[in-house]
Amino acid sequence: MTFDYHYVSHGFILDSLVQNNYFRFMARPKEFDRDAALAGALQVFWAKGYEGASTGDLLKGMKIGRQSMYDTFGDKQALYLECLHCYHKLDNKNFFDHLSDNPSPLEVLHGFLAIFTRRSEAENAMGCMGINAITAYGQTKPEVKALALNTAARVEAMLARLIEAAQKTGELANSVDADVASSFVYAALQGLTVRAQAGASRGELADVADFTIKALKAMR
Amino acid sequence: MTFDYHYVSHGFILDSLVQNNYFRFMARPKEFDRDAALAGALQVFWAKGYEGASTGDLLKGMKIGRQSMYDTFGDKQALYLECLHCYHKLDNKNFFDHLSDNPSPLEVLHGFLAIFTRRSEAENAMGCMGINAITAYGQTKPEVKALALNTAARVEAMLARLIEAAQKTGELANSVDADVASSFVYAALQGLTVRAQAGASRGELADVADFTIKALKAMR
DNA sequence: TCAATTTTGGATTACTCAGTCCAAAACCCA
DNA sequence: TGGGTTTTGGACTGAGTAATCCAAAATTGA
C-alpha cells in the first residue's frame, strides 16, 4: 500500500486511518517537508525549464534524496506538472490578495499592470512560469495547454468583475464591453511579462502600464 | 583553410578566389542549398525548441547528412542562433512588407495586431520563435537576450514611425507620445502572440486587436 | 583516364540523462 | 531492547544525446 503524502500532509487520510487503528506499526516519518521540496522544485523548473532542469539540479533545489523524490512525486513529468499547478495557484492567490478593499478598481488594475516596475530585474527575467510553459511545451504537453486555458478563463473572469466594478464607480464608461476589456487587459499583462523578460527598461514598463489604464479610461 | 559558405552563397569570397585562380582544383560542390537547409532547421527549432530538437530531427528537417550539417553550420548551438537570426530577419521583413502604400497608418497597425485572426490554429500554436527563445533561453543564452533587445529597439522604432504618420493624417491625437504608444502596441502584439499560442479563440483575438486600435484613437 | 579534393553518411565515442535497485540507517511501538 | 516498517542515498542501468572519425562516392581540371 502506498500513501499520497499530499493528502497526508493535509491531514485527511492519515487521521482516519490512525483512528481506525489501521497501522499496527508507525514507521520512520519523512524527514523533509513536502511543500518545501515542491517549492524548491518549482524554483528550479521556473528558472531552467523542463528539459533544462536535470534531476541533479532538482534534488539540490529540493534538498532531498533521489529516491525520496521518486517515491513522493512520481517522475519528473508529474513533478513538473504539480509545480505548474502550484505556480498557477500561487499566482492566482497573489491576484486575489491585491483585490482587498481598494475603493478604486482601476487602481487595482493598474497595480497588476505595474507589477513589473516593483519587481527586481532578476525576477522580471524569470518571467511567468505559465507563459514559459506554454511557449515551450504548449504544443507537446496537453496538460500544459489545458492548464493554461483553465487559468486564462479564471483570470479573465476576475478581470471582467474588476472592470464591471470600475463601471459602477464611474471610472470606466458603461459602453465598454467588460469581457473584451478584460481580454485586452489580460493580453497587455502577458505582453508586459514578455517585454519585462526580454529586458525592457523599468521606465518603458511603467509607461505602458500607465498608458493602458489611460486608454481604458478614454474608451467610450 | 575553411570557407564560410554563408558568404559563398552570397557570392563574395568565392568569386574573388576563383578570379585569382586560387583554386587549382574544383572539388565536388555541395549537393544541397544552404538556405533551404537553414529554413528546414528553423522550422524544427521553432516547433520543438532547442533542447527538444535532436540532431536526428534537425537532419530530417534539413534533408542533409550529419557531417554536412557540422561542416556547414558548426555545432547545434551555432545552428540555432543562426536560425534565430534568420527568423528575426524574416519577421522584420514581413512587417516592412505590410507598410506598403496604405494611406491609413492606423490600418497598418491594425493589420499587425489582427494577424492572428488570419493565421491557422497550428501557426498560432507555434507562437513567435523570438518569444519562445526569450522565455526559454533568455537567461541562459546571452546571445538570445542581445538579439531580443536589438529586435525590440528596431520594431519599436518602426511602430513609432507609424504612429507619427497616423498623427500626421489626423488619425491619432498629437498629444499622444509616439514612443510610449509604440511600446504599448508592441506589448499588445507580444501579448496577443502568447494569448494565441495559449489557445485563445479567434473571436477574442480579433476583439483585442480592435479594442487596442480603438483605445489608441480615443487617447488624447 | 587520372590525380586531387570535397561531400557524404554510417559507425563510433564519450557523455548525460531519467529512473531503478538495494542495503543500511532511522524510527515507531511493544 | 528488538521486531517491523519506511526512508534514504549511493551504485547501477539502459536509453538517448551531441559530436567525431573514416572510408567510399562524387566531381573537377588536366
From TrEMBL, chains A, B:
Which Pfam families does the record associate with it?
TetR_C_13, TetR_N
Keywords recorded for this protein, A-Z: DNA-binding, Transcription, Transcription regulation
| Keyword Nucleus included in the entry's annotation | no
Gene3D superfamilies, per database record: Homeodomain-like, Tetracycline Repressor, domain 2
Q: Residue ranges of the Tetracyclin repressor-like C-terminal domain?
A: 109-202
Q: Which InterPro entries match?
A: Homeodomain-like_sf (IPR009057), HTH_TetR (IPR001647), Tet_transcr_reg_TetR-rel_C_sf (IPR036271), TetR_C (IPR011075)
The record's annotation in SUPFAM superfamilies points to:
Homeodomain-like, Tetracyclin repressor-like, C-terminal domain
**Which domain of life does the UniProt lineage start with?**
Bacteria
The segment(s) forming the HTH tetR-type domain are 38-83
Q: Which GO terms describe its molecular function?
A: DNA binding
Does the keyword field hold Cell division?
Answer: no
Q: Entry's PANTHER family?
A: TRANSCRIPTIONAL REGULATORY PROTEIN
List the protein's name.
Answer: TetR family transcriptional regulator
Q: Which organism is it from?
A: Phyllobacterium bourgognense
Question: What does UniProt list as this organism's lineage?
Answer: Bacteria, Pseudomonadati, Pseudomonadota, Alphaproteobacteria, Hyphomicrobiales
